[in-house]
Structures
1.
Amino acid sequence: MFSKPEQRLLNDPYFQIVRCNETFYELQSRNTLHYWMIRKNYNAESFRIELHHKHKVHDYYHTQYRNVSTVKKAIRIIKDHDQYVLNLLHQ
């Protein structure tokens, strides 16, 4: 389950929440329109977050990062990825 501070981070206006439950949030970046799933992995001993990514709604998710230790770090990875994509588009 996501804590209240994690939920506040995930409710960032940077994202559109597509769907969520106790174990995952599916988000869409408002900047790149890419989709992301932040999933709690309760079976992992040292890392609890899996980060999955896809470009379009009908694509399949692929695992972007398996070993993210916090929701805050996962969000930073998403925003850094968006910046990378946007920089490529403007070259």
Note: Residues 4-89 form one domain.
2.
Amino acid sequence: MAKQSKLITCKHCGQEIAAGAKTCPHCGGKNKKPIYKRVWFWVLIVIVLIGAIGGGGGSKDSSNNGDKKVGEVASTQSTAADKNQSTEPATEKAEDVQTVYKVGDILHDGNMDIVYVSSGDYQEDNEFMQPAEGKKYIFMNFAFINTSDKSDSSISFYSFECYADGYSCDAYYGGDDDLSATLSAGRSTQGSVYFEVPTDAKEIEVEYETNMFAQDKITFVFEGDKDSGYVLEKNTTATEGALKVGEKIESKSLNVTYLSCEADSSDNMFINPKDGYHYVTCEFEFENVSKSDLSVSYFSFDCYADGVNCDGAYFRDDAISATLSAGRKAKGTVTFEVPDNATIVEVEYLANYWTSNRVVFDASGK
């Protein structure tokens, strides 16, 4: 005798149907298993629990996402730049883990070494840009060294916030050497952040955001007029294979020809290089050899003099900026302010943002 199938009641129409039926033959309604009876539901629960347990073991402490003090300028001038001499102790001591730094401290943050070089009051020469009554301008100077051997790192004054006696202070953007740069592997920069603070403030602190997503921050204490004496170590080794004027590089999407490089000057009386500096302008031709549109811009260029980032200058009207359809070309220039005594000047073009792939051009004028 055939085995009789177990019957259940359809939750849609109330008729009896076979227990294994996925669809009711009477009303067509589908009879799904409750979510808690499904295998994938419990697999997901197990994965979440494992992740929660694992995450608990890696919770953050006062080390602030790996930021640590690795030296002081007074004790080791070349700490941040000398890769042959390790500054990290074999066993990290509790006093080395900190989030508050003073002038002369050197810390390591991910792929970046940060040196708190100096602090002090800033005097603005422009009579129309003076601080409000009862306030003054201050500066804090930092050096950043990208210690990675392949990845870019960016620095911006927008990552700094100032507090005087716990109250937020306005940033000042009229300083001489703003701190903002994208550093390719091994490159460095130095610059200052400026703020307007009350003249009678007792405690002034500047917070630097090391991780935008996790909102990790470290604190630099303003110490009045104080200078560590730190000087960035220069790198006068030329990049192997750097393109010279007249040379061309080809890829599957973009061909770049290095047309010229020469000293330059501005016709605008208000735009002049700092003392001891001069302008250098390089001209390029871009050809889109892909089947899609491509954009080229002077914002994709960086310049380094002996390994130290140089400021861009934007007084020319032929600065490269174009969107090229397939097969089209464009010519344009980029201009930078470089030290008169620089030995090796190189201009880099960021060919691929995601891979930090760069094309290097020799701009030393030799």
Note: The chain has a mean pLDDT of 81.
